Amino acid sequence: MATESNSTPSPKTIPESIEYDNLQPDDFDGASENGIIPDELAAQQVLAAISSLQSPQNTTALKQARSPYSSVRTKRRLAAKPRALLMTLFGVVLTFLGIALNNLIIGIIGTTITLLLSLLILFPWLQEAIKIWSTAQDRTIFVAFLGMLVAAVGVIRFTGVGDRLLTWGRKVNWDASGTLAEWFGALGQILIAVIAVYVAWRQYVISKDLTIQQNLLTVQQNIITQQQTIDSYFQGISDLVLDEEGLLEDWPQERLLAEGRTAAILSSVDASGKAKILRFLSRSKLLTPLKRDTILGRAILDGTGGYAEDRVGGLRVIDLGVTLAGADLSTTDLRWTDLSEANLVRVNLSGCDLVKSNLSRTILYEANLTGADMNGTRLFYGSTETATPRSRTEPPNQQTGEHTGAVVEGADFTDVQRLSEANHYYCCAWGGEKTRKTIPGGCDGIPNKLGR
Predict the structure, then answer these.
(1) For residue 186, is it within any domain?
(2) From CA 341, how far away is CA 381, in angstroms rounded?
(3) Based on C-alpha coordinates, what's the Rg of the chain?
(4) How far apart are CA 84 and CA 118, in angstroms?
(5) What Cα–Cα distance (Å) separates residue 443 from each residue in 54, 154, 377, 433?
């Protein structure tokens, strides 16, 4: 019948073969074989007696009992007993006495006693130091190298190789070897110079790599900082133009502050940041001319969940004006963006995505639209036959298209993608000779209504 694993062991299970002579304190605690003090040995005996207690209720107690003694075992006591210290001091005194009396016998006895006792005291410390500062593998490699060195000396000494080397050395013409040594010296200097050049080149490569990495980190940090600035701007504009009920409430001073914030941030961000801001403002209807009541000037709802637009007499919450003149918006996403009536003189829109964007009455004088995608882009209202560019003095006519078109004189339409037939005709008719040369497909058969 198998005994239960949590049965209590009898006292007979404790080893009885332990010699009590080994439990007596030594003069040198650290010099024993395993460095175990009597209190620690007694603790180990108790632990051995209760090691078979595996019940759940005893496991925790067993771990707690082991923890203090395990920490004690990790610290080897290296202190010597008082008797050993007295004997060492006695040897020191004998040594100095022999020196003082100039007595050879007393001096040798004192020196021998001091040396042996000191070695016995320091031996445990040396063991601990070797274990701390070197691993078993390091000690093995050291002994292996030492053995190889001794074996090489033995081979040279006992196989006659040393005698042959000496005989060969006597036959060498060292005067001729001196010239050869000078050649080797010159070659060594050349090699040193080559190594110096290689080291300098490697330093340059490493410095260049570090500079590139630092630049990348700087760019990433600038992107993060810019995004945080844009997010703060979004929140500030939202808090400024909305009331507690979330409705648009833009008093004159609020509109002025919103335009000032917009002008400031557009001048401090890159092309991608400008595009994000423009998309936010456009989709929020802050760039669209809104219909107002004639008393308070507040925006009027259109009855379908939005604000009513008024392209002729409406008022925008934020008027871009000349904020984007000469700006770089190349290769950005401006889809569904309302840039109507904005001054985009000499703006760089090359490679932009202008799908469904509104550029009516926008000043695109000498703008760069190379490679832009203009699928569904609005350049005017009305029909191509009656639509004309904007005028400083005449109001726009949304039905006929008069004075509702963009100013495209001098604009570059090279490689423009998906330009509609209506926009193609309008650009050829009102772009002038410089613009007509850049429009894909040419302008044959389309009159130059601009006249220049």
Answers:
(1) no
(2) 13
(3) 48
(4) 9
(5) 97, 100, 19, 10
Region for 160 from its dihedrals, namely left if φ exceeds 0, alpha if ψ lies in -120 to 50, beta otherwise: left
- The pLDDT of residue 424 is 96
Tokens 């019940």 correspond to what residue?
A: 55
Three-class DSSP category at 43: helix
Q: What is the pLDDT of residues 435-449, one digit of tens each?
A: 999 999 999 999 999
Q: Which domain holds residue 127?
A: 82-156
CA distance 336 to 349: 15
Judge whether 416 and 374 are in contact, CB under 8 Å.
Answer: yes
User: Can you say how many angstroms the Cα of residue 206 is from the centroid of all Cα atoms in its chain?
Assistant: 18
Burial of 228 (0-12, 13-18, 19+ CB in 10 A): exposed
Say how far apart CA 56 and CA 54 lie, in whole Å: 6
Residue 61, pLDDT score: 47
* Cα–Cα distance measured from residue 62 to residue 78, given in angstroms and rounded to the nearest whole number: 29
Kindly report, residue by residue over 356-366, the tens digit of the pLDDT: 999 999 999 99
Distance CA 332, CA 18 (A): 87
Q: What's the rounded Cα separation, in Å, for the pair 401 and 96?
A: 120
What is the model's pTM? 0.58
Token pair of 187 as six digits: 């070659």
Dihedral sign (CA 234, 238, 239, 241): positive
Closest by CA to 223, choosing from 277, 275, 270, is: 270
132/397 Cα distance (integer angstroms): 92
Angle, helices 161-171/136-158, rounded to nearest 10 degrees: 60
CA dist list (Å): 338 to 110, 131, 241, 271: 104, 77, 19, 17
Is residue 404 a contact partner of residue 390, using CB atoms and an 8 Å limit? yes
Amino acid at 132: I
- Cα separation, 178 vs 186, in Å, equals 12
Identify the burial level of 142 via C-beta atoms within 10 angstroms of its C-beta, where 0-12 means exposed, 13-18 middle and 19 or more buried: exposed
More confident residue, 18 or 266: 266
128-157: per-residue pLDDT in tens? 888 888 788 888 888 888 888 888 888 877
Please give the backbone phi and psi of residue 289, each rounded to the nearest 5 degrees, phi first.
-70, 120
Assign 235 to helix, strand or coil: helix
Total structural domains in the chain?
1
